[in-house]
Amino acid sequence: MGTTQLDTVPEPKYWHLKTVLSDALDSEFAVGEILPNERELAARFGVARATLRQALEQLELEGRLQRRRGVGTTVAPPRFGVDVVQGEQGWPGTPDDAWQTGESEETAPPAGVAALLGHEQGEPVHSVRRTRMTHGQPVATEVLYVPHSSVPALPAAEPGAGAARGRAVLRELQRLDLEGQERTVELGSVRADDARQLDRLPGAPVLVVTTCYIAQGTTAAVGVSTYRADTCRLTFGDSKVPEPLMTGADGPAEPAHRRHRAGARLSRR
Amino acid sequence: MGTTQLDTVPEPKYWHLKTVLSDALDSEFAVGEILPNERELAARFGVARATLRQALEQLELEGRLQRRRGVGTTVAPPRFGVDVVQGEQGWPGTPDDAWQTGESEETAPPAGVAALLGHEQGEPVHSVRRTRMTHGQPVATEVLYVPHSSVPALPAAEPGAGAARGRAVLRELQRLDLEGQERTVELGSVRADDARQLDRLPGAPVLVVTTCYIAQGTTAAVGVSTYRADTCRLTFGDSKVPEPLMTGADGPAEPAHRRHRAGARLSRR
DNA sequence: GAGTGGTCTAGACCACCTC
DNA sequence: AGGTGGTCTAGACCACTCC
Questions:
Q1: Strands A80-83 and A99-107
Q2: Which of A20, A214, B29, B200 lies 20 to 30 Å (CA to CA) from residue A64?
Q3: Spatial separation of the C-alpha atoms in residues B62 and B190, rounded to whole Å
Q4: d(Cα A224, Cα A74) in Å, to the nearest integer?
C-alpha cells in the first residue's frame, strides 16, 4: 500500500500540455513571437505530433495562438472588441458603420432566414454581401436579406450585381422607420466561401450573429454576420470596457499560481 | 489535353465527409436517433477512424451531433435560445431569473475581472457561483464577482460558504440602483471544474459572456457566464424569434440543392 | 528547395456506460 | 463482458510560404 494517489484520474496529456504551453506563453513570449515548430515542440515534450497539435488547437481556439501554414505558429494579440450594436438602433449602411458594402443579388434566402421573414421557401429577396474590416484585416462577413416587402425589386439601375446595387438597396431600406433589433449569437464553422475572405481554413470556428431588423411591426430585414471567433470579442452596447480584458479561456484565467512542475523552457535554449 | 479540372484544389476528405454526413442527417435521421459507431462509419466511407472523427467533431461543434462516451453518437435537437438579457436591466437573482444560486466565498478575482472592477490584483471580493438550468439540463455556469464597495463583507451570518450566503450577497446587491449593463461574448473552452457541471469533457467549446453591472457610475459587479456552445443559441433582447432557426453552420445552411454524389446510406442497410 | 502547418493512416490502449 | 467514444502513437504525404 505504499502507492500514492492512484485514484487520481489521469489528466489527458494534451490537456496538461495545453496548460504548460499556456504558462510558457505568459512568461516567455511576447505577442507576435514565433514558436518552435510542431515537430520540435512534440519532441521536446516527448509526445506525438498529433497530441501536441491537439494542445495547440485548444490554444488557437482560445485566441492565444495563431497558426499559418508555411509560416509557423505565433503568439496572438489579445482579442479586440467589436461592437455589434452599431449606431445604436440604426439601419445597416449608415455613415458611422464599420462595414463596406459588397456584391448584391436576387436570391432565395436559406431556410432559416425564410422562416424569420415569414416567407415560403424559395421566395426571392435582395441579398447584400458586406465585409467588416478592423485594423486592416477582415473580421466578419455578412449577408443582409431584404425582402421585397421592404425594398421592391430595383428598377434595374445596375447590371444585376455589384456594390453600387447593394448600396442602393441599403439606401432604400433606410427610408423605413426602424423599431428595433433582435439578435442571437451562436457558434458555427466557417463555410468555404467565407473562409477565404476571413483568411481562415474552412471549418474554423466563427460566431454567427443573426440580426432581425424590425419595422412596421414585422421583420423588415435579416442580417447574418460571421465573425472570426479566434480574434474577436463581441461587445454589446456602448461598452467602456478597457482593452486587456478576457483571456479567451473559460472566464478570465486564474492568476499564474499553483501551476505545474514540468519546467520545459520553449525559447532558445 | 484530355484532362479535366486538374486545377481544382482537392477538398479535404473530412470536409467532404462532413457535408455528406450532414445531408444524411437531414434526410435519414430523426432527432435523438443513434448513428452507427465510429469504426463502422469509418469503414463504410473507407477512411481512417481519425478522419471520420474530424468530420464528427465539426458536426458536434455546429450542434448537429451529440457524442457520449460509452453510449454513442446521436442526432442533436436544434439549439434552443437562451435569453441573456434577463429581466430587462435587472440585477441577477431577481424573481423571474433562470439561475439558481450556488456556493459563495471570498476570493481574489481573476486578473481580467480585477481590471474591470478597477482593482489591484489580489483584492478580495464576494464570488457567487450560479447555475442555469433549461429543460432539466444545466446549460451555463456563472461566477458573479461583487466587490466590497458594492456589498460590504457580510457579518458572518453563514459559516463562510454555501448557497444561503450567496443569496444574501445578491439580496444586498439588489438594493443598489442599476444604471446599465454591458456585455461581451467570446469563444472559450470549458475548464475542468465547469466541465463536470455542464456534463462536457474539458476543452469543450463554450460561449463566455462577461457582464458588467453599472451602478453609481462604476462597475458594481461583474458576471462571467459560461454557456454550452453546442446546445445554446444566445438571444439578446425580447426576441420573438421562432424555434427552428439557424443550423449552427455558417449562417443558415444552403437548401439541400447541388450536393454530392456519394450515395452512402447510413441507416440499417 | 527547405521548412512550415494541414491531412491522413492503421493501429493500440483507455475510460465509461450498459447489459 | 462487450461495446462505445476518447486518447495517443509513429509514421507518411501534401499545400503553402519564403528565400
A1: unpaired
A2: B200
A3: 16
A4: 30
DSSP A79-94: PEEEESSTTTTPPTT-
Residue A83: closest CA among A198, A240, A236, A246: A236
**Could you identify the residue written with the cell 458573479?**
B144
Contacts of B251 in chain A (CB under 8 A): 110, 112-113, 143, 188, 191, 208, 224, 226
Contact A186 B232 (CB under 8 A): yes
d(CA B86, CA B88): 5
Chain A hits for B255, Cβ within 8 Å: 108, 110-111, 121
Indicate the Cα dihedral angle B134, B76, A199, A221, nearest 10°: -70
The strand pairing partners of B125, in sequence order, are B107
Q: Do A239 and B190 touch (CB under 8 A)?
A: no
Tell which of A187, A227, A259 to mutate to test the B interface (max B CBs under 10 Å).
A187
- Is B204 within 8 Å of B195 (Cβ atoms)? yes
Q: Please, what is the Cα angle at A147 between A146 and A149, to 5 degrees?
A: 125
Confidence category of residue A198, pLDDT binned at 50, 70, 90: confident
d(CA B111, C1' C16) / Å: 36
pTM of the model: 0.86
List, edge to edge, every strand of the sheet that includes B218-228: A80-83, A232-236, B180-189, B205-215, B218-228, B137-146, B125-134, B99-107
Residue A46 backbone phi and psi in degrees, to 5: 70, 35
